[in-house]
Amino acid sequence: MHALARHRYHRAAPVVLVLLLLALIAGVAAAVSTASSAEATTATADDVAEGEKLFAANCASCHGLGAEGQDGVAPSLVGVGAAAVDFQVGTGRMPMQASGPQAPAKRPQFSAEEISQLAAFVASLGAGPGIPTAEQVDPALGDPAKGMELFRTNCAMCHGSVGGGGALTQGKYAPNLWETTPTHIYEAMLTGPQSMPVFNDANITSEGKRDIIAFLKAQDEGSPGGLRLGTIGPVAEGMWGWLVALGLIIASTVWIGARSS
After folding, report:
1. CB atoms within 10 A of CB 59
2. pTM higher than the cut 0.85
3. Which domain holds residue 19?
């Protein structure tokens, strides 16, 4: 039996198995890395060059020619990645019209192609989060129920229970998210603009971010209970119910009294 076992298992078998396992892990890691950087590989040298020209003409006065920033004026953009540029410029927050506690969203000042070029230039200055893929932000692939749990745990204290926005301190505010595109919602979670914290994959996974997007986009379908009444909570809705009910009672009492007299 011992002689048979020695012939059945070769001494090198464990080493071969370990090498095969390492090769499999390396292959999976390479596939994941390729998928996650698909957006970054679409930028060409021409995009970077054109983005540098746009940056010098429109952004360098505040951020500096090398995007290193200026103390008390604008932060450094080295290492913020393409996602931060796509969000800030794509939502019209940058360039800012005037200094203030918060940069408001407005109509974008650049075309989609120009925004991509600016993002490519800034991404070339240092590694940072890339623009998410269409699959990562597709609400149809997300779970609104899971997204609701994640949103109310991580986001509702500022943006409200259904993403309607809310006031913060010192003139700042959490914006309404109902008209924000899925890509910009994902990028905001990824980069943490202004008062918002960063939610990297250690805090909320890529799938979790997509679930949150699915929950927010589900709000477009309306309220199953009828009028939203601003969707600011049961206290306000209950107050309106009492006002309407009491108003009808008072009006009925006055009408009955007038008819009796």
Report:
1. 22
2. no
3. 2-32
